[in-house]
């Protein structure tokens, strides 16, 4: 019979998501970033000392503080709803009614199972029903949801859902092709494999529209 620790390892090693939303506590933002950095700094110090590292060495002295700031301000900054980009939209005055595709948006995220990088590219498309969004806002939405502990399936869905809300249409699609360093650099150690996820809404569920989108992106992602 599998015990609880083995079950948790099975979920993590197979990259299984247990929640469609990021599992964030309700009190996650009751303390300031500065307090979080101070707490994480102490934890990183303890990890390095436990591993046997000499924190009096000039190269390591600042590492706990650097890691703490990186966690709070950078790679996990997308957890903070205050940092959510404003997805400004505009009237489609030029009446463009075909598919708009933004290819090769860089994805830097972090696997929530091993806290190792996910690196890849997102391809996002929508069909306007009267509103359009600035191209850079699509990049910022991808970045915002990437900057948190993630699973790729959830990230793909969140990007689509956010754009559907902003644009007021179901006609949004996203494909992500990414390498997971928890697969590439540990465990099976397969440096070549990548993971592809997709989410298709509205008209993109139609076979012809979906094929047109996939033809545009061709999934020839290189890392």
SSE layout and pairings?
Elements: H1 4-13, H2 33-50, H3 63-75, E1 89-91, E2 99-111, E3 117-127, E4 131-133, H4 135-146, E5 149-150, H5 152-167, E6 172-180, H6 181-184, E7 195-200, H7 207-217
**Helix content, binned percent:** 25-40%
Mean pLDDT across the residues is 90
Structural class by sheet pairing and helices: alpha+beta
Q: Based on Cα principal axes, name the global outline.
A: elongated
In whole angstroms, the N-to-C terminal distance is 41 Å
Largest sheet: 5 strands, mixed
The number of strands is 7
Assembly context of the chains: single chain
Number of helical segments? Answer: 7
Please state roughly what percent of the residues sit in beta strands, choosing from under 5%, 5-15%, 15-25%, 25-35%, 35-45% or over 45%.
Answer: 15-25%
Strand order across the largest sheet? 5-2-3-6-7
Helices and strands, in order, run as HHHEEEEHEHEHEH
**Unreliable stretches covering 5 or more consecutive residues:** none
Family: Belongs to the GTP cyclohydrolase I family.
Keywords: GTP-binding, Hydrolase, Metal-binding, Nucleotide-binding, One-carbon metabolism, Zinc
Binding site for Zn(2+): 111, 114, 182
GO molecular function: GTP cyclohydrolase I activity
Structural commentary:
This protein is an alpha+beta fold. The chain is built from 7 helices and 7 strands, in the order αααββββαβαβαβα. Strand 2 and strand 3 (117-127) form a beta hairpin.
Key structural traits:
GTP-binding, single chain, GTP_CycHdrlase_I_dom, alpha+beta, 223 residues, 21% strand, nucleotide-binding, 7 strands
